[in-house]
Amino acid sequence: MKTLLALLSKSSNRDDVEFIPFLSNTDTVLTVILIQEGIHLTQSPSDKTYVLEDDLTLRNGHSTFPKISYRDMVTMIFDADTVIAL
Question: Greatest CA separation found in the chain?
Fold first, then answer.
């Protein structure tokens, strides 16, 4: 099974979020990481959604998604078959 990792850095463009599921198929596991202004999103197209903890702290944000570190994010980037940034 292939993995698609989407890094979402913008919170205002809902079209990006709605577009992501069309990039994956039944043979692809979709994972989303919310970074920068993307941490403000409250809905995600994937059950596997994470938020970068340092960006939450920097922007005094709050999220219901599980927090990950930069180290976790880098590991996920190298482990993914495909990475997209929106």
Answer: 37
* pTM of the predicted protein model: 0.86
Tell me the C-alpha distance between 28 and 81, whole Å: 9
Supply the DSSP symbol for 3: E
Write down the architecture of domain 2-85 according to CATH.
3-Layer(aba) Sandwich (3.40)
Q: pLDDT above 90 covers what percent of the chain?
A: 58
Burial category of 64 from C-beta neighbours within 10 Å (exposed 0-12, middle 13-18, buried 19 and up): exposed
Q: Return the domain boundaries, the chain.
A: 2-85
Report the run of H or E that residue 73 belongs to, with start and end: helix 70-79
Residues whose CB falls within 8 Å of the CB of residue 80, separated by 6 or more in sequence, listed in order: 3, 4, 5, 31
